[in-house]
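Give me structure tokens for this 143-residue protein.
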Amino acid sequence: MKRISRILLSVVLVSTAVVSVAVDWNTTHIFNPEWHPHAKFHDVVMLWLLSGMSMMALWLLWRRSTEPDIAYTVAMLVPVVFWSPFFFTTLVVPGTSLQADLKEAPPVIAGIPIYPNVTVATVSVILALIGYFLHRASRSAAE
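Here you go.
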């Protein structure tokens, strides 16, 4: 179970960094001529920070340590802290949106608008929590 936990958390960390760069490094975000230059700056800073944090969490997760719980906690927290704002930012900051292109309506399933980034956020948070709790369960079983 410990190995599955480590692999699952690694997949979430890598996919979080890779997907975020792939989605933002194009004309809908960073190279969007309608974006303010300072917004572009913040997006690149966020991507750099996220990639760096993901790499540090991976390093902690895979290195030999006498305190592996810290590594698993950090590996879970990086994606959870990154993706969690996708669930509430539009509620607390007026003028924000879950979609990059406001000219197109989001897909609708069963009358509910489906935002791809919220779907990715939901899956990532759930998988990170599962990976973390698998580690915790394996520690409890070993004691």
